[in-house]
Specification:
Layout: E1 14-20, H1 24-37, H2 47-50, H3 66-69, E2 78-84, H4 90-97, H5 102-107, H6 109-113, E3 118-119, H7 141-159, E4 161-168, H8 185-193, H9 201-211, E5 216-218, H10 228-236, E6 241-243, H11 250-263, E7 267-277, H12 280-285, H13 288-306, H14 312-315, E8 319-326, E9 335-343, E10 349-356, H15 362-373, H16 376-379, H17 406-420
Parallel strand pairs: 1-2, 1-4, 2-3, 4-5, 5-6, 7-8
Antiparallel strand pairs: 7-9, 9-10
This protein binds nicotinamide-adenine-dinucleotide.
The site of nicotinamide-adenine-dinucleotide has 32 residues, from α1, β2 and α12.
């Protein structure tokens, strides 16, 4: 039965989007939003802008647009700021990234040129391939966190934003395992004051956001907010968190195809994935430390989806390889190739080949995280598992395993929206139609 809708504040005023790392992803997002606002392009690939949600029984034919069903911020209300270790404004950075074509970029040049990155919190140890020129100085990591918090307050004041969210679009940092300094907020804050080497720059941004009650999303596979200290801060300040590592390309397809194979009990012998990319992300990932972080994130999905422990005959010991090749001539026109060796009826072998490019999602994350911060029931939960749909390594409560199957993730997302609006959850049982 439908219940009472859950309290969600209206999205009044501007929503400030704070972005550490203003490279290809960030500038493609910002340029895209502006191009859509000026009606130069359409928000293809965005669930919040193009998706609908079925409500009630099928014969009722109720399927409003998601953006009419839940109160989301409008694109006209978004304002942007960010940090980078390169001084390029967003127009220059977008031009260098080479994702969008010049004709489109030139039509939004006035807007993009006005967004200049603030000096970054950066330590080369964590991203070996980059050398910073626009970098903050501070005696301790706590001083740096305070400077980031000042930047945030300053931006809120100058932009007049009524709400903020932060989304990490920075490079992939080296692989880190949670250690003692990450285990509680007190230990973490002590570590900030004593310059603990285990505290990465991305953690300083996440800490600063959550400390001010600003929701944080992590688009890269870095450990960042996936530590008890950050979860404690998120719960304490009712600041939603989600991550990590955008699910845009190869892994998106993996989580579409693997559930299909499993649904029809088709076996898997091996899945070989390779990528070529020639942008800065590719250069950063050439460093084995950064690659390891990415590899862990890309490798985990198949084991969870295929459940070899339940289906040993079909999936035990399948071979899964992921390669990322930095190949400069390719620029940002990255490409992922997959070869799947599968087996069907009587064990007969078959193959599938895939060639795919990335899809967008920063906009949806920004709008949904903002929705979560306006809804006290969601905000006080900390981790927003319903946003798993967007991530390669979705954050979830410590006692759970993550849900990777894209279709379960979509059902979870839409059922969360139905729950928020007091609508009946959809189970697809449908026996009542035959009574
Ligand atoms: N493109 C995709 O589809 C995709 C998918 C999943 C994850 N990601 C991740 O998103 C991130 C961004 O990707 P991209 O293609 O935009 O890379 P990019 O190299 O173009 O941009 C990253 C930017 O972050 C900046 N940076 C690094 N450390 C920083 C710090 N401490 N503070 C501020 N800025 C910092 C770099 O200078 C660079 O400009 C990467 O970690 C990438 O792995 C991208």
């Amino acid at each position: 039965m439908a219940k009472k809708p859950i309290q969600i504040a209206e999205p009044k005023g501007k929503l400030g989007v704070l972005i550490p790392g203003m490279g290809a992803v960030a500038t493609t997002f910002i340029a895209g939003v502006e191009a859509i606002r000026r009606q130069l392009a359409r928000p293809i690939g965005s669930l919040t802008q193009m998706g609908t949600i079925r409500l009630g029984k099928r014969p009722e034919k109720r399927a409003p647009a998601i953006k009419d069903f839940v109160p989301l911020a409008g694109l006209d209300d978004l304002v942007f700021a960010g940090w980078d270790l390169f001084k390029d404004n967003c127009y220059e950075a977008a031009t260098k990234a080479g994702v969008l074509d010049r004709t489109l970029l030139d039509q939004v040049k006035d807007f993009l040129s006005g967004i200049r990155p603030m000096p970054a919190v950066f330590q080369q140890k964590f991203v070996k391939k980059l050398h910073g020129e626009n970098v903050k100085k501070g005696k301790t990591k706590m001083d740096l966190a305070e400077q980031v918090q000042d930047d945030i307050r300053q931006f809120q004041k100058s932009s007049g934003a009524s709400r903020l969210i932060m989304i990490w679009c920075g490079s992939t940092e080296i692989f880190l395992k949670p250690s003692a300094v990450h285990q509680s907020l007190a230990a973490f804050e002590k570590g900030l004051r004593t310059n603990s080497p285990e505290i990465a720059p991305s953690m300083i941004y996440a800490y600063s956001a959550l400390k001010l009650g600003v929701p944080f999303a992590n688009g890269a596979p870095n450990l960042t907010a996936d530590i008890p200290a950050m979860l404690e801060l998120s719960l304490k300040n009712h600041a939603p968190v989600c991550g990590k590592d955008y699910k845009t390309g190869q892994t998106l397809l993996k989580t579409i195809i693997a559930p299909g194979l499993k649904a029809r009990m088709i076996g898997l012998k091996g899945w070989f994935s390779t990528n070529i990319l020639g942008n800065r992300d590719g250069e950063v990932l050439e460093d084995p430390g950064s690659f390891r972080t990415k590899e862990e994130s890309k490798l985990s999905v198949l084991e969870y989806i295929l459940q070899p422990e339940l289906y040993p005959e079909l999936y035990k010991g399948f071979c899964h390889k992921v390669k990322i090749n930095y190949y400069p001539p390719r620029g940002d026109n990255k490409e992922g190739w997959d070869n799947l060796d599968i087996f069907g009826w009587l064990g007969y072998p078959m193959q599938i080949k895939i060639d795919f490019l990335a899809a967008p999602l920063v906009l949806d994350l920004v709008l949904f995280l903002d929705l979560a911060q306006r809804c006290p029931e969601m905000a006080r939960k900390g981790i927003q598992e319903w946003l798993s749909f967007y991530f390669k390594s979705p954050m979830c409560a410590p006692h759970l395993y993550p849900e990777h199957d894209l279709f379960i993730q979509l059902m979870k997302l839409k059922n969360t929206l139905r729950h928020l609006r007091g609508e009946e959850l959809i189970t697809h049982l449908g026996l009542e139609y035959y009574d």
